[in-house]
Every structure is written in structure tokens, then in C-alpha cells.
Amino acid sequence: MRVFGIDPGYGRCGVAVVEKQEGKEVLLYSDCIETPMGAEFAARLLRVADECARLIREYAPDSIAMEKVFFSNNQKTAMQVAEVRGALINCASGFGLTVSEYSPGEVKVAIANSGKADKKQIAAMLRMLIAIKKPIKRDDEYDAIAIAVAHLALKHGDEARKRLQ
């Protein structure tokens, strides 16, 4: 199973492609899509959606895993991130892919077994769970990797439970 993990954003959007090979998660690709701060929102949205579509074509994932939007004090930012999520869900649907959504807490529990884990703890656990052979510059990229790994863990667990029933 190959998963495209996305930490949605319009300034920075973390993306990662992780595959389960012989029972182990393998990082095939990760990056942070960045858009110019002064650009119009529509242009930033288009850039993120186009790059995600390119990655879907290149890596042919079986599914998409995306972080759920959480509302912060800045409602305008939260609304724009929600718009990015909508554009990416639409993009995934255009490729016939399903999108699974996870809250930050669900991802933290799946990766570090604690919903209160901080960014450093998540990064450390990811380095134990999956070979990351390149420097990661932004938290958004770690978040995308974590979302993809969490999806594989949660999806694999669901499949195992179904086989036992």
C-alpha cells in the first residue's frame, strides 16, 4: 500500500509518499511545497493543488491521508487552510482516490503512543520507525510523513482486525 500524506497549508504544505514494503514503512518522497508570501491566495492555492496532482501522477498512491483542519485564533488562516483541504480533496477525487482524515491527536497517538507528544518527540519516533535519509528542514514535512505513517498503521490495524473476525 502506498500513501500520499499531506499536511495542508497554502504558505507551506508538507507532502510525503510512504509505502509499506514487506511489513515495513519506506519513505519514497517528502518535501514542503512553499508559495510566495506576497502572492494572491488563488495563485498559492493553484500552486499547491498543481504540485499535489503532479505527485499523484508520479507516485500513483493507493490513498491520500490528510490532517484535519483545526481552528486557531486566526479564523482567516483557518478558513484558507480549509479551502486548501477542499481543493486537495477535489484533486484526489479527480484521480479516483479516497482521502482519510486524521486529527493531530490521532497522528500523535499512532506515532508516539501519546496525544500530547510534541514535534521533537514525533520527529524522533519517526526516525526510529522509518529510514529518513535526507535532512528535513520544516515541521510541515515531518507532519506529512507522520500522517502517512499513521495512516498505514491505522489502516493495517483495521485490515488485521477484519481478518480475525
Folded structure, characterized:
It is a single chain. The chain is of the alpha/beta class and about 160 residues long. The protein has one domain (about 1-165): Ribonuclease H-like superfamily/Ribonuclease H (Nucleotidyltransferase, domain 5, 2-Layer Sandwich). It contains five helices and five strands; from the N terminus they run E-E-E-H-E-H-E-H-H-H. The protein has helices spanning about 40-60, 75-95, 105-110, 120-130, 140-165; strands spanning about 1-5, 10-20, 25-35, 65, 100. A five-stranded mixed β-sheet has the order 3-2-1-4-5. Strand 2 (about 10-20) and strand 3 form a beta hairpin. Helix 1 runs parallel beside helix 2. It is globular and about 40 Å long. It starts with a strand and ends with a helix. About 30% of the residues are buried. Residues about 160-165 have low confidence and may be disordered.
Write the layout of secondary structure elements.
Elements: E1 2-7, E2 12-21, E3 24-34, H1 41-59, E4 63-67, H2 75-94, E5 99-102, H3 104-112, H4 119-129, H5 139-164
Helix pairs in contact: 1-2, 3-5, 4-5
What is the helical fraction, as a range of percent? 40-55%
The total of beta strands comes to 5
What would you call the shape?
globular
Low-confidence stretches are 159-165
Q: Indicate the CATH class.
A: Alpha Beta
Query: Could you name the CATH topology?
Result: Nucleotidyltransferase, domain 5
Largest sheet: 5 strands, mixed
- Strand percentage lies at 15-25%
Tally of separate domains: 1
Given helix and strand content, the structural type is: alpha/beta
Order of helices and strands: EEEHEHEHHH
| Terminal-residue CA separation | 22 Å
CATH superfamily: Ribonuclease H-like superfamily/Ribonuclease H
Strands ordered across the widest β-sheet: 3-2-1-4-5
Number of helices: 5
Mean residue pLDDT: 90
Radius of gyration: 15 Å
CATH architecture: 2-Layer Sandwich
